[in-house]
Amino acid sequence: MKKIVLSILILFSVCPLLFSQNTKIQAMFVYNFTKYLTWEGDESETFNIGVYKNKDFFNEIELLAANFKVADKQVTVKEFSNIENIASCHILYTSEQSLPELKKIWEQISTLPILLVTSDADTDFRGININFIVKDKRQKFELYPPNLRDRKIKIDKELLNKAIVKKF
Questions:
Q1: What's the CA gap between 76 and 48, in Å, rounded?
Q2: Are 47 and 71 in contact (CB under 8 A)?
Q3: What is the C-alpha to C-alpha distance for residues 88 and 139, in angstroms, rounded to an integer?
Q4: pLDDT, tens digit, for every residue of 59-70?
Q5: Whole-angstrom distance, CA of residue 92 vs CA of residue 78
Q6: Given the DSSP bridges, would you call strands 37-39 and 91-94 parallel, antiparallel or unpaired?
Q7: CB burial string 111-124: b at 16+ within 10 A, e below
Q8: Has residue 17 got a pLDDT over 50?
Q9: Is 93:54 a contact under the CB 8 Å cutoff?
Q10: Is the pLDDT of residue 10 over 80?
Q11: Strand order across the beta sheet in which 138-143 lies
């Protein structure tokens, strides 16, 4: 019985570390995406990353933003807890917890040049631009090129080579 209890305690102490590590990896991916994407006609003074209802990801990407620029622009990170407030960002990250709200999120940003990045969206929802998945125990990402073109976001071929390219 002690071994079972000990095993459960170890499992619960390791799971948050794995989750935390995955969040850090996804934040690095998002930063790296900016190297391979161009927002057509973008004249904003800052590069804005929005995070919807995910404090852990917000904290990770905010740490990165303090140390890098995108296209010679300072990076700002905005945290959104209300769909109606989502606006003026280049990238919007939503996690699996907000997937039930994905359609409403899309309705809010559908006319804006915002890259919609999701995590573990096992869905055929057509508004997704990039979706994080774990495949063969490694963090990967799915990329939906037609959706990016619709958003007036140009894709470098190198990003296409690194992605799991999806078509609806």
A1: 5
A2: yes
A3: 28
A4: 999 999 999 999
A5: 9
A6: unpaired
A7: eebbbbbbbebeee
A8: no
A9: yes
A10: no
A11: 69-70, 73-80, 46-52, 91-94, 115-119, 130-135, 138-143, 164-165
Residue 164 · residue 130 · CB < 8 Å: no
pLDDT of residue 143: 92
The arithmetic mean of pLDDT across residues 32-43, rounded, is 93
What integer pLDDT is reported at residue 162 of this predicted model? 94
Q: Which residue range(s) make up the domain with 57?
A: 2-165
More confident residue, 13 or 105: 105
Cβ atoms of 148 and 126 within 8 Å: the answer is: no
Q: How far apart are CA 78 and CA 41, in angstroms?
A: 22
Q: Cα 71 from chain centroid? A: 19
Give the integer Cα–Cα distance in Å for 146 and 139: 23
Query: What CATH number is given to the structural domain containing 35?
Result: 3.40.50
* Interaxial angle between packed helices 2-33 and 55-65, expressed in degrees from 0 to 180 and rounded to the nearest 10: 50
Q: How many domains does the chain have?
A: 1
Q: How many CB atoms lie within 10 A of CB 154?
A: 12
